Amino acid sequence: MELELSPYSLDTLKANKKFFSGNPIEFYNKDSKRAKKEKLLLQSTFKQALNRNTKLYRVKDKSKEVNDNLGFFAISVGNIDVNGSKIPSAILDYLILNNKFRKYLCEPNQYTLGIELFREILAIINDLSNTIGIRYIILEPLNKEQDLVDFYTKFGFNFIPQKDSTWMYLDIKELN
Fold first, then answer.
1. Exposed (0-12), middle (13-18) or buried (19+): which is 26, by Cβ within 10 Å?
2. Which range among 6-15, 17-26, 87-96 shows the weakest confidence by mean pLDDT?
3. CA distances from 117 to 11, 87, 90, 163 (A)
């Protein structure tokens, strides 16, 4: 499996409005409470993308071995407060993977879908940081779930050092 990341244009988003406002992905978590949160997050992210506040991407298999959507993610730009200064940062607004394919291995590195996709996302953000002035990547793991926190920690993310922060960050310099 080889990943193809396709950013949605505004016209494509508008054309797919019915798709995104319905039940666009059959691979929400099996836990109904979590699935409901995931669906609401995608719908919110879609609205942000329509307003041009975030860029929504679709993940497919370039080799066509798998025809289903493998996942979606969204990136925007915001700020992180560092010692009272607002520092421009990339925000990973949304990331969801198709549960059916999470264990699949991607070419050429043989990483799981989650690891390979996250590596691709970090590369996009790193490239973006060479074009515009952003210093950090920030994200908020859903419900601070330990498996998500562990996943992001393996990539070097830490919680923002504020009391009860639910947000994690990574200095983009760590990617080079």
1. exposed
2. 17-26
3. 25, 26, 16, 30
